[in-house]
């Protein structure tokens, strides 16, 4: 059963941010690229690193990564509530929630 506790949460029918029915992707609340870093290994156990996941539609997922860096995500935005507390993300999600399921927003230029 040990592998069972490392399973992601079950895939819902709709995006956990905008609520639209759309193909969903896994958003790791503690980005996978940081899982091997000592700072994050000390702060979060293996189960938390592997199972802290939100199921998101592609536009919501892309928007989060366009707005926030990976360390910022791991340090401050490790929950749905925290993500929705970010004004730029909340505004986008509320706008997207009014669009039909197949709607794909134009991609803004990626920040770097």
Q: H/E order of the elements?
A: EHHEHHHH
Query: Strand pairing plus helix content: what structural class?
Result: mainly alpha
Low-confidence stretches: none
Outline type: globular
Major sheet strand order: 1-2
Largest sheet: 2 strands, antiparallel
Measured on Cα atoms, how large is the radius of gyration?
Answer: 14 Å
Distance between the termini: 42 Å
The strand count comes to 2
**Content of β-strand:** 5-15%
**Mean pLDDT rating:** 90
Number of helices: 6
Assembly type of the chains comes to: single chain
Helix content: 25-40%
Protein name: HNH endonuclease
Organism: Halomonas campaniensis
Structural overview:
- The chain has 112 residues and is mainly alpha-helical.
- It has a domain of 75 residues.
- Helices cover 39% and strands 9% of the residues.
- It has 6 helices and 2 strands, in the order βααβαααα.
- The protein has a two-stranded antiparallel sheet.
- Helix 3 runs antiparallel to helix 6.
- It is globular and about 40 Å long.
- The model has no long low-confidence stretch (mean pLDDT 90).
- This is HNH endonuclease.
Summary of the model, kept short:
Helices cover 39% and strands 9% of the residues. It has 112 residues and is mainly alpha-helical.
